[in-house]
Amino acid sequence: MSLDPTFRKEAEELVKEQMAAYDPSHDWLHVDRVRRQALKIAKEESSQGKSIDVELVELAALFHDIGDAKFQKEGQPSGREIVMGFLSKYKYEKADLVARIVENVSFRKELAGNKDEWTQSCIELHIVQDADKLDAIGAFGIMRCAAYSGYKNRPLYDPAEKAQLDMTYEQYQAQTKANTGCAISHFHEKLFRLKDMMKTPSAIKMVEKRHDLMVEFVKRIEEEYSMDE
């Protein structure tokens, strides 16, 4: 079942309003790409006989960055509160499930190690997670990393900086709070890890090409910096 057009339009307007406060790496266009990618994955997984609530996938994908911890300020309502407030107006029966997916989409949450039965089995969550990861890598991922680094006033490349490989949740949180780390380190610390975190067969098939592009890009950065061309 697909979303009612009026309901979808109202949901999109809410997302556009929320994303207007974020930087270009987390804007409405990012959300729309994730939505379209999630629907593509859902269609492909459904063709393999899996039972998927496509309406749930679309709503969760639309709302996945609302209340993002990177942009959250003290005293602001949480993503769950905003999503539940909107969906309650429409008496949407699966509002709590939408909010639960939104709360668990991020790399940060996965790094925290929440592996209860629901997070391990919810196919709609896995689809939105994979779609969000796919937009974090490849060509768009490269541009988004640079855009966010510019927004946070972080260096693009610092040859003296040593990336924190196999970064833990605690290290990730500390780095975010301190606003440290250059853009190229982010590839080593997070983006290169995403290939092995995909959950759906459809995303696993898509990820290799995007991952390889990033590897080649970082290699070229290092070659250009060393002038070894």
Automatic annotation (TrEMBL):
Alphabetical keyword list: Hydrolase
SUPFAM superfamilies, per database record: HD-domain/PDEase-like
Domain annotation HD/PDEase: ranges: 23-146
Superkingdom as given in the UniProt entry: Eukaryota
Gene3D superfamilies from the UniProt entry: 1.10.3210.50
Entry protein name: Metal dependent phosphohydrolase
Keyword Mitochondrion: no
InterPro entries: HD/PDEase_dom, HD_domain
Pfam family, any one: HD
PANTHER family reported for this sequence: HD_PDEASE DOMAIN-CONTAINING PROTEIN, SUPERFAMILY HYDROLASE, PUTATIVE (AFU_ORTHOLOGUE AFUA_1G03035)-RELATED
Gene Ontology terms, MF aspect: hydrolase activity
